[in-house]
Amino acid sequence: MRARTDGFVPAPDAIRRAFAGATSAELLFFLRQCLERGAFDHALALGDALPDAASEPALALTLAVARFLAGERVDARAGVAELVRTRPTDLNALAVLAEMDARSGDRAAAVAEFARLVDAYPDYPGAQPTLAALLMPGPPYREVLRAIHAALRPATYLEIGVAAGATLALASTAEVAVGVEPVPAPLEHVLPAGARVVNETSDAFFATRKRDEVFGARAVELVFIDGLHLFEHALRDFVHAERWCGRESTIVLHDCLPVASATASRERRTRFWVGDTWKAAWALAEQRPDLRIRTILTPPSGLVVVRRLDPTSTRLDEAGAVIAGLMPLAYPLAPGVWPGQLHVVPNTPAGLAEALG
Predict the structure, then answer these.
(1) What is the pLDDT of residues 32-82, one digit of tens each?
(2) Edge-to-edge strands of the sheet including 303-307?
(3) Pairing of the two strands 245-254 and 220-225
(4) Number of domains the chain contains
(5) Nearest alpha-carbon partner for 295 in 247, 243, 333
(6) Cα(58)–Cα(346) distance, rounded to whole angstroms?
(7) Are residues 39 and 176 in the same domain?
């Protein structure tokens, strides 16, 4: 795969003259330039002309990436696997090995390697999103939420947590769509004509308004909860929103299916963070067996779809004991092990149909 009929690389002597005295950092920068421009043959030519460079782990790793992208996948992976074996704390080598296995279709190996990488350093660039995509194949959550809107065509829609407006913009069928967001921020998406944002906390929103003041005589047909990443807030949002719904309405909760325990803590310690909102879904499953709960495996952290609502339920009115019991719990599951009480379904049209059943 190195030979290209439309390509040209300088002779080894020319490369050696050009890089005589270059430091490892300078060679590494040049190799990165080659990779970014797709000049894999040029990167490999440098490795051939300067064989001693491969003794430097970072250079050897970068050359292995070039070799992999040039089609020499087996040899490239073998070299990186050896680096990981001899340098078990080399996060860069582990990340490259995981990416190689993912691109080669070895899902089990890639999951194990990315899980190990995330455990060692949760903020390694791209590690958590890739791990989530491997464990939850299929479209990302916003596309799944778009499909939910298309299937249900809600005339009334409530959203807790608006951010830049990407999900509120999906409410194209709603005559009235309201997003609740305590932190005013510029919207990066065009909202439908019937949509507006209320800049309040969800607690203040529900405490100072009645449903008919916001939606008229109609129940809220679809609710999306994606607010504070603390489970007691998510649980309160559910309780308040359910009272504004009808029995045929649907509530969807985000960030309740972590792929790594490091992202699932109450205190934020990672760039990608879901908090302990997963406890809200667990509390609903335990305390409200009357609800129909299905969880779509959509990256990065699932969508919990709750149906067969009961706006008159008072089961969670006094949820203090439930909250106190769950408060100290750390996320107990390994990556790819899903809680049975959340009834996970695949991220496919059939899975979506089951979730909305």
Answers:
(1) 999 999 999 999 999 999 998 888 999 999 999 999 999 999 999 999 999
(2) 195-198, 176-180, 156-160, 220-225, 245-254, 303-307, 292-296, 344-345
(3) parallel
(4) 2
(5) 333
(6) 39
(7) no
pLDDT one-digit tens code per residue, 187-203: 999 999 999 999 999 99
The pLDDT assigned to 6 comes to: 56
One-letter-per-residue 3-state SS of 13-68? HHHHHHCCCCCHHHHHHHHHHHHHCCCHHHHHHHHHHCHHHHHCHHHHHHHHHHHH
In whole angstroms, give the CA distance from residue 233 to residue 256. Answer: 13
Q: Which residue has the tokens 């899903």?
A: 338
CA distance 298 to 355: 12
Using CA atoms, how far residue 321 sits from 70, 248, 311, 339, in Å, is 59, 29, 22, 22
Q: Is residue 1 part of a domain?
A: no
Residue 252 in contact with residue 306, Cβ under 8 Å?
yes
Note the pTM of the prediction, 2 decimals.
Answer: 0.92
Q: Which residue in 247, 227, 245 sits closest to 237, CA to CA?
A: 227
| Structure-token match 């455990």, residue found | 119
Strand pairing partners for 177?
157, 195
The tens digit of pLDDT for each residue in 297-335 reads 999 999 999 999 999 999 998 888 888 999 999 999 999
Q: Do 52 and 167 belong to one domain?
A: no
**Taking a C-beta distance cutoff of 8 angstroms, is the pair 244, 225 a contact?**
no
Q: Tell whether 99 and 227 lie within a shared domain.
A: no
